[in-house]
Every structure is written in C-alpha cells, then in structure tokens.
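Predict structure. Chain length: 97.
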Amino acid sequence: MKIIIDLMVMYRGTDDNFMFGSVRREIETNLVPVAGMEIEDSAWKIPRDIKSVTINPAEGYYHIWVGEDEADERERAYQQVQMYKSHGWEVLSCSEV
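Prediction complete.
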C-alpha cells in the first residue's frame, strides 16, 4: 500500500502566524505504519515520530501525520519548503517570501 506524509511549514512571526507551505511525500511499501513508530526521511536529520495514522482501504493508502515544521522568518520558511523539494517531496503550496 501507499503511505502519504503531508507536512506543513508554519510561519510564526511577530506580527502574524500562518501556514507558509505544505509538502507531500508518497511512498509505496508493504510496511504498515503504526502511531508511535518513527519514520526516517532524507530531509530529516533524525527520524520523526508518527503521531497518527489514517487508513483509507478504498483508495489503498495510509496517511500519516508527523507534526509540523516551524520558522520565525519568512525566508527561513521558504528555504524549508525548498529543502523538502530538493529531497523529492512534492510542494502542494508555498507563500511568497
């Protein structure tokens, strides 16, 4: 089955806070993810905890949530989204710098 990881990059500034960008990784595997496990990816220095798993048997995928990334500068949030893109993640949305 397919595993889908959606991750949001949040901008937490002094004037406002919002979702700066959203990225997605899709992985085809025979492994079954379980909340509490850790998952590795080349974009991360250390594995991340799988916080929740949603199963969609009709569509044949597991959707896992591993938390969010935060940045306190718009440029840093943009660079974070671009870093994910350079590691093969699909950019779903990205705000302007």
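Summary: The helical segments are 74-86.
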